[in-house]
Structures are given as structure tokens and as C-alpha cells.
Amino acid sequence: MAAQSRSFLQVAATEEVAPPLRVVQIEGLVILKIIKHCQEFSPALVTGQLLGLDVGSVLEVTNCFPFPIREEDEEIEAEGANYQLEMMRCLREVNVDNNTVGWYQSTLFGSFQTVELIETFMNYQENIRRCVCIVYDPSRSNQGVLALKALKLSDSFMDLYKNNNFTGEKLRDKNLSWVDIFEEIPIKVSNSALISAFMTELETDTPVRQCDYDRLQLSTNPFLERNMEFLIECMDDLSMEQQKFQFYYRNLSRQQAQQQAWLQKRRTENMSRKAAGEEPLPEEDPSNPIFKPLPEPSRLESFLVTNQVSNYCNQINGVAGQSFSRLYLMKALHED
């Protein structure tokens, strides 16, 4: 008994180290709920709560429910919070998983890398050890692809964000670049044996679904045009961020030149005072404005914009490649 007691105390005193998150396992019904909610309100952006269990290296998502449309009014925001609590209470009463494991949100052409998303992650991290954000893009799914991603923030980025220090020196010390902000977690879809058997009965001998027809659409101009428009806007934003850094380094160079000139003048003056037998003056003057350090602009916004640019380029590249394949296929069919 004493040995068991000591073993329990040792286990209780030992800090449990959580294994890294490897897979997000989502039930098929949850995915259907997310798609239905996002498609109904598209192109408006919507969000919802993810419920499930954190089991080892797998985050199981077993249920979800939508949030009301957000408004700026504080009273409406308070009603939204009460709605979430009431939903959690109702789910608990019917013995349904009510543990929060993250949230889902819709996006438009993959434009989800924002400061608001990072702040939401940090708010969730205060109460939940591990959480994910499921991002669904209805516009991308219309091309015959299930545009569903599971994202989390990297640990190194969260440490920097907590300290609000995104200077070049800190980023070099952490070896952090724009690709290290978000981590995409593989998604595994799971269904119960009963649902799998039912879906098997519904299948015909030659199943052809709507998504199969969507993949054969030859017109991709609207999708590519919108991506190009967003890409141009991001390039403008990136150019503005670069101008901020150019302005900072220009002021820094000017300040260093002023410091050198002042220091040279002070050394010359000290040589004269030393020749006259007087005490030399200090070579630094904290009260002088030219010795006040200039605040370096944060690189967070430029990192997020670069992420957006990369995302739009990948989407354009993927859609254009698939479009060429379909055009060559149709050409071969017409020739036959």
C-alpha cells in the first residue's frame, strides 16, 4: 500500500509532457455540418465551435455548432457568449461531448492569415492546452476540391507573440521565418461502422457525384481573376510594409551619422580640455535626442502578407495546371 502511495505521489508530482499533435480526426457528420453552415452564408464569413477529445497525439473532433453572426454591438456580443454557454450546457445534458477543442471558420479564396486569427488562437490557448482551427473555403470547393485545413500556431511563434517582439534580431535568434507561423495538421475523416455500411448501400455500381462534374468545368476565369485581384492587393500591402522598413533604416542611418558627428566633436573638445588641464566630458549624453533608440517596426504584418501571397500563388498554380490538363483532355476527345 505504501509503495502504491509513493507511486501515486511520484506520478502526481511529475509534470506530464503532452506528445506533439499529429492528426486531427474529424467525424464525417461534423464536416457536413461545417460545409452546410459555410455554404449557406457564403460569401459572408461565419464561425463555429469544435467539440471533441484530446487523446495523445490525436485531436478528435466529434461535434460542432455554429456561432451567431457577429455584430459590433456589445449587447449582441454578450448574447453570443450566452448562446455558446447555453449550447454547451444543453449538449452536456444529453451526454454529448462538450469539450472545446477549437473552432472552425469560413474563408474567401484562402485569405485567413490575419492578426485576428492569431489573437483568437492566443485567447483559446489561455484555457485550452491544444486547439486547432478548421478553415473551409467554399469558393475553392466549387472547383471540385474539398478545401479543408486544420491549422495551429507554432510554439516558437507563440513565444515571440506573447513577448510582442518581432524585431529582426529576435527573429534571427529564433530562426523564425514567415513559413513558421502556422502549422497545418493532417486531417483524418472517420465514420462509425453503421454509417459506413449505410453509405455503402447508397452507392451505385458506377457512382458519379457532383464534385466529379465540378472537376470537369473548363471555365476557371472567375476564380483566377479573384485570386489575381487579391494577389495584387497583397503585393501593394507588402510594398507598403517594405517602405516602412526603408524609412526606419534611413532614419537609423541618419541617427548614426549624427551620433558619430557629435562623438567626434566631443572628443575634439575633450582633447582641448585635457590640454587645458580640465576634466574631460563624458562621451555619451543620454539626454541628447540623437541617442534615443528608434523603435523598429514589427515584422508580423509583413510575415502575414507574405503568407497570403504564397497561398494565392499556390492556388493560381494549382488551378491553372488542372485547367490545362482539362483543356488537353477535351482537345483529345474532340480530335477523336
Automatic annotation (TrEMBL):
Annotated region (Disordered), positions in chain: 264-293
GO cellular component terms attached to this protein's record: eukaryotic 43S preinitiation complex; eukaryotic 48S preinitiation complex; eukaryotic translation initiation factor 3 complex
Compositionally biased region (Basic and acidic residues): 266-277
Broad class of the protein's primary localization: cytoplasm
An annotated GO BP: formation of cytoplasmic translation initiation complex
Record carries keyword Hydrolase: no
InterPro entries assigned to the protein according to its UniProt record, in alphabetical order: eIF3h, eIF3h_C, JAMM/MPN+_dom, JAMM_MPN+_peptidase_M67A, MPN
GO MF annotation terms: metallopeptidase activity; translation initiation factor activity
Subcellular location: Cytoplasm
Domain MPN residues, every copy: 24-157
PROSITE patterns for this protein: MPN
Pfam families (alphabetical): eIF3h_C, JAB
Keywords of the record: Cytoplasm, Initiation factor, Protein biosynthesis
Subunit structure: Component of the eukaryotic translation initiation factor 3 (eIF-3) complex.
Function (record text): Component of the eukaryotic translation initiation factor 3 (eIF-3) complex, which is involved in protein synthesis of a specialized repertoire of mRNAs and, together with other initiation factors, stimulates binding of mRNA and methionyl-tRNAi to the 40S ribosome. The eIF-3 complex specifically targets and initiates translation of a subset of mRNAs involved in cell proliferation.
Stated family: Belongs to the eIF-3 subunit H family.
Protein name in the entry: Eukaryotic translation initiation factor 3 subunit H
Protein's organism: Olea europaea subsp. europaea
The organism's taxonomic lineage, starting at the top: Eukaryota, Viridiplantae, Streptophyta, Embryophyta, Tracheophyta
